[in-house]
Amino acid sequence: MSTLLVVYSADYLKYDFGPGHPFTPGRWEALHDLVSSLDLKIEWVESTPCADDDLLRVHDGEFVEAVINASSNLTVPYAGFMGLATGDVPTFKGMHDASKMVCGGSLLAGELAVSGRQKRVLQLGGGLHHAMSDRASGFCVYNDLAVMISGLRAKGCRVAYVDIDVHHGDGVQAIFYTDPDVLTVSLHESGQYLFPGTGFVDEIGEGEAEGLSVNVPLFPGTTDDSYLECFEAVVPEVLAQFEPDILVVQSGADAHVMDPLAHLCLSTHAYDKIFDRLIELAESITGGCIVCTLGGGYAFDSTLRIWSMLAHKLAGEDLPENLPHAWLKRWRQHIRSSRWHSWHDLSSAPESPDRNLHIRDANRSTIERLNSHLIRAN
Ligand SMILES: [Zn+2]
Fold it and tell me: Which residue of 46, 69, 232, 282 sits 20 to 30 Å from the alpha carbon of 100, by its own alpha carbon?
């Protein structure tokens, strides 16, 4: 059993938009409790806030200033133009500091992975992939992934980023759209049906980075087999061609069928395979160097099961059959699934085979169109 480095801080819980907001820090608290209860060899590393300079490599000074002001005064002129004081990103006291702590955790996770201490690192937070350089968006104030990637770039690393959140990783893509040393790959529900409305196959990067933004927009209702087929058709080849030094993964769990905010229909069995493949690909392409952050995930029980499964995979351990009894007892009032005791959903069998074939064919033609765009770029 190898030691897994896990970056965390109880201060992540201060990234809190208030009661009723779907991006509740309660998920991180329950996850920290769950991962602490597992029979895994873990070295916990305390996160520290990133420096303002780390933020300013990614975000505009004017935007950071607005977040600082909103954190204390809660009112900022023209806040809405910067995505602040909106339904998705309401302002709250201490927002700047809480966001800097999340960014600092991701930056530290990236630094640890390339330091040679342990090649696999789990950041038990973050994944705020929608934040743009000049505005907050989609529950994301600052973009911790971009702060991590820019920190790795400053160390001379070539970085491959794979985003499996059900929403397009638009902020990370936009920030590195012209950087030839960053590959971004996002698999998500098509922007035709879901926020943020981007991530189409013709968004392929610009200039020297043409061909280095790769988007796999999937049809609503996509189930395990079609998702995994699309993953295999795209991800291994683009990663191998790019030859990165490190793989950064945004491990959003909101493509699960139980998620209330989106319409993909993955089971835990798909996540099991996706995590295995990402770790295998890192072993063969980056010498095993991989950092995973969290991301979206709004169904409590599936999200917790998926992210604790990821901890097992990164630690190189098989999943036990059941979740820890004491943890289930502590959090049972939040759990809705009838399979509450088990890591896995009962079955990944499609409910409607004809509909599944239609969706599979639609996804196959998306991959064909993506390939024709990428071939033209190369
Ligand atoms: Zn999401």
Answer: 282
